[in-house]
Structure formats: structure tokens, C-alpha cells
């Protein structure tokens, strides 16, 4: 009977079950090797295939990795190399995942169950997260059809922009080369050639600096640093708990029927007394995923906050003032675009601001009661509204926190401007 050693590291990595001939029976990956391997010897294990594998196993070993992404990729490489018998038997009710690169000027990348370019991978969700992280370092296009103007992903630096325009006449050869280099880099990472890619980036950085191309040197240095960072720190295999920042955002996406997880949320509020000296505020909450390589906690990003002095109204009209603020915000093309906009108010505020916000960005309005407590959420479709108190507690807390922060910042700015006038 196989017995498990006790000195197993609590680290991500790949593990191997072997028979008496030291042939590999099964290869798996883990975010925590100790916990994963111990789970095989739990009394709760009933799967006949796992029990059969354990009966045939004479030993178990493992290989630590610096991150869960590295474990995912290493597992794929080793399964492809050794084709362990129990990896096949234990997947008969599921399918492996493969990464496909299309054959066109600007190749697209997608995941398939058919045996294609790179794979097999055992965890589709982890593979999607890995691609999302790599895309922030090596941008590529995901647009289904060409279009006339730059896409949303271009504005959040997930796309090079020119790769999905209808008119390709202005595209330069070096731009095509940059895109193909990004695709090649992603192939190298997923194919287990990260170390050679890192050496190549370091070589490019030094050569660009030597040639006086400081912009190119900075770009290569950032790519190298981001690549190293995600392979040292990224946690992707384990599903985030519902009370974690990522878990709460996942719940928010589901409850509000958003097209994607809102990595950047902007909230707006107005502060005035009878229309005099009115001001508006924009507060920003991010989880770090849209703008850095490493996921982090969802938090207020105060460096992104913005203040507005109302110019168009001197009479009490919060709806018109809110409309002015958001109109001015979306003239700033250099500001990162949000994944969700929240405005303070009800249907009137929502209807007034909806035409201003870009069509692909969802917007909701949070109405308050007389005690200034969030009470109702209105979305762009007429049938979509929610009572705040009936939402999951984590989602409720998040929305109330964001809404309260927008109100606090607006009041703070109003008081500051009011004090200045009073002192004059």
C-alpha cells in the first residue's frame, strides 16, 4: 500500500504517481502540492479510477514551480511527452484544452477541444486566465470583425489597435512585425520556452539602449519585468472564494448580467446647495487586473479620481449636472475606459447619461432613500432593476462602498471649494 511522505512543500507544482518500474502512471498540477497529494488519501475518495491508480502506484514525487501558471504549462508539456495511462483514463468524461493560432496577417488566439497548436491543458479556466495575463504584456486582437475606429481593448492596452481596422492600407511593415512578435512570444510561453523568451527580451533591451532607441528599451524592460512577475506570483488554478475581491466581482458580473468582470468601475456624484457652486466627482475602483500583470485586491484607486466644477448650471438640476460631468469625462481619450459606470440617482439620471457613455460600457444608477441609503439599482434595460437589500451580501457591500465613496469625495470637494470662497 502506497504511503505518502510527510515532507511535501506547500508550493505550486507538478506531481507524479509511478509504478514499481518507475513508469509514470499519472501527472497532475497543484496550487498547493501538500494539500493536493493528501487529498488522494482521504477516506472520501470513491472514484474507482483514482483508487485503481493508487493501487498500481508504488511511489509519488513532485517538481516545485514558482507559480501556478508555470505548473499549468509544465503539466501540459509533461502529459504531451509521457502520455500517462491514467491521464487518459481519468479524462474520459472530459476533454483537454488546446490553444489555437489562426493563419492570417494578424492571427487570433482561441481555445479549442480539438488537438491543435499547443496543449493539452487540463484546466480551461486557468488557461483563459493565463492568456488574459499574457495579453496585457503582449497585446493581440480578439475582435470578431474589423471596424472603422479603435476598439475598447485598444484603449485599455489589450490590443495594438491597427490589427482590427477595416482599412489596412496605412499599416506599416514594422507594425505587422510587432504584432507577430507578440504572437510568437505567447507561443513560446505556452510552449514552455519562457526562459529563452526572457533571454531574448533582455537581449533586445540591451541592443535598443545601445542603439539609442530608449523607447524600445523601456518597452522590452517592461515586458521582461511583467513576464517574470506573473511567473513568480500569479495564482490562477484555485477558484477564488466568493468573499475574495475576484469572487465578489464574479458575483457582481452575474447579478447585473454584465458582459465581463468589471476590473475598473467608475462612480459619479454631484454636490451642491440649491445649484450654487456645484461640483461633480469621479471615483475609481480597480482590482489591478486591467492595468498590471498581477491580480490584486479590489480597491479605490485615488490616483484616478477626478473633480469637476459645474459650468452649465447654476440652478438645482442634478440630472443636467451629472450629464455635463460624464460628457466632459468621455472627452478624455487618454483616461483608461471603465468596465462599469455607476451614477447616483434613478431612472432620470440613467436615461440622461446612457447616450453619453460608450455603447459597450454598462451603466447603472443607484437610487437612495431619504436617509441617503442605497435602495434601488436601475440598469439600461427597462426590466432590469434590483432592490439593493436583496442582492448577495458581498455584492451589496461592494456597491454601497463604491456609492458612498463617490458621495464622500463629492461632498469633500464641495466643502473645500466653499471654504475657499468664504475666506476671500
- In the CATH scheme, the class of the largest domain would be Alpha Beta
- The end-to-end span amounts to 86 Å
The structural domain count equals 3
Average of per-residue pLDDT values: 85
What would the keywords be for this entry?
eight-stranded mixed β-sheet; Nucleotidyltransferase, domain 5; 13 helices; 424 residues; 3 domains; GIY-YIG endonuclease; 14 strands; single chain; alpha+beta; three-stranded antiparallel β-sheet; globular
Summarize it.
The protein has 424 residues and is of the alpha+beta class. It folds into three domains: 13-89, 3-Layer(aba) Sandwich (GIY-YIG endonuclease); 103-233, no CATH class; 245-423, Nucleotidyltransferase, domain 5, CATH 3.30.420.340.
Report what the structure shows.
Residues 288-296 have low confidence and may be disordered. The longest helix is centred in the last third of the chain and has 31 residues, at 393-423. A hairpin with a 5-residue loop joins β1 and β2 (24-30). The protein is built from 13 helices and 14 strands. The protein has three domains: 13-89, GIY-YIG endonuclease (3-Layer(aba) Sandwich), CATH 3.40.1440.10; 103-233, no CATH class; 245-423, 2-Layer Sandwich (Nucleotidyltransferase, domain 5), CATH 3.30.420.340. The strands form three sheets. Strands 7, 8, 9, 10, 11, 12, 13 and 14 form an eight-stranded mixed sheet that branches. A three-stranded antiparallel sheet has the order 2-1-3. It is α+β, with helices and mostly antiparallel strands and 424 residues long. α7 packs antiparallel against α8 (194-210), α8 packs antiparallel against α9 (214-233) and α11 packs parallel to α12 (347-353).
Amino acid at each position: 500500500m502506497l504511503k505518502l511522505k510527510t515532507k511535501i512543500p506547500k508550493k505550486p507544482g507538478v506531481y507524479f504517481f509511478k509504478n514499481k518500474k518507475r513508469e509514470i502512471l499519472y501527472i497532475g498540477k497543484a496550487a498547493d502540492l501538500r494539500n493536493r497529494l493528501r487529498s488522494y488519501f482521504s477516506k472520501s475518495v470513491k472514484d474507482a479510477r483514482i483508487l485503481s491508480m493508487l493501487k498500481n502506484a508504488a511511489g509519488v514525487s513532485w517538481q516545485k514551480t514558482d507559480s501556478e501558471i508555470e505548473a499549468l504549462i509544465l503539466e501540459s508539456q509533461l502529459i504531451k511527452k509521457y502520455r500517462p495511462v491514467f491521464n487518459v483514463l481519468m479524462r474520459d468524461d472530459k476533454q483537454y484544452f488546446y490553444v489555437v493560432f489562426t493563419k492570417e496577417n494578424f492571427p487570433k488566439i482561441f481555445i479549442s477541444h480539438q488537438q491543435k497548436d499547443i496543449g493539452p491543458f487540463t484546466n480551461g479556466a486557468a488557461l483563459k486566465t493565463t492568456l488574459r495575463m499574457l495579453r496585457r504584456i503582449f497585446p493581440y486582437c480578439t475582435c470578431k470583425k474589423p471596424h472603422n475606429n479603435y476598439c475598447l481593448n485598444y484603449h485599455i492596452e489589450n490590443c495594438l489597435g491597427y490589427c482590427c481596422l477595416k482599412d489596412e492600407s496605412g499599416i506599416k511593415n514594422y507594425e505587422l512585425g510587432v504584432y507577430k512578435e507578440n504572437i510568437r512570444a505567447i507561443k513560446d510561453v505556452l510552449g514552455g520556452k519562457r526562459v529563452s523568451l526572457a533571454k531574448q527580451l533582455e537581449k533586445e533591451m540591451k541592443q535598443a539602449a545601445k542603439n539609442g532607441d530608449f523607447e524600445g528599451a523601456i518597452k522590452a524592460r517592461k515586458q521582461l519585468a511583467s513576464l517574470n512577475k506573473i511567473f513568480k506570483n500569479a495564482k490562477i488554478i484555485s477558484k477564488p472564494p466568493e468573499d475574495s475581491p475576484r469572487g465578489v466581482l464574479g458575483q457582481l458580473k452575474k447579478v447585473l448580467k454584465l458582459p465581463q468582470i468589471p476590473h475598473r468601475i467608475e462612480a459619479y456624484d454631484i454636490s451642491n446647495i440649491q445649484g450654487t457652486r456645484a461640483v461633480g466627482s469621479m471615483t475609481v475602483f480597480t482590482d489591478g487586473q486591467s492595468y498590471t500583470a498581477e491580480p490584486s485586491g479590489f480597491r479605490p484607486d485615488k490616483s484616478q479620481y477626478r473633480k469637476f466644477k459645474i459650468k452649465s448650471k447654476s440652478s438645482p438640476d442634478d440630472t443636467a449636472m451629472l450629464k455635463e460631468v460624464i460628457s466632459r469625462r468621455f472627452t478624455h481619450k487618454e483616461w483608461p475606459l471603465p468596465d462599469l459606470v455607476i451614477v447616483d440617482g434613478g431612472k432620470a439620471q440613467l436615461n440622461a447619461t446612457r447616450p453619453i457613455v460608450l455603447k459597450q460600457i454598462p451603466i447603472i444608477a443607484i437610487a437612495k432613500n431619504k436617509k441617503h441609503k442605497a435602495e434601488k439599482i436601475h440598469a439600461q434595460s427597462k426590466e432590469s432593476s434590483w432592490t439593493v437589500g436583496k442582492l448577495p451580501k458581498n455584492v451589496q457591500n461592494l456597491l454601497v462602498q463604491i456609492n458612498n465613496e463617490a458621495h464622500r469625495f463629492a461632498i469633500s470637494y464641495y466643502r473645500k471649494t466653499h471654504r475657499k470662497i468664504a475666506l476671500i
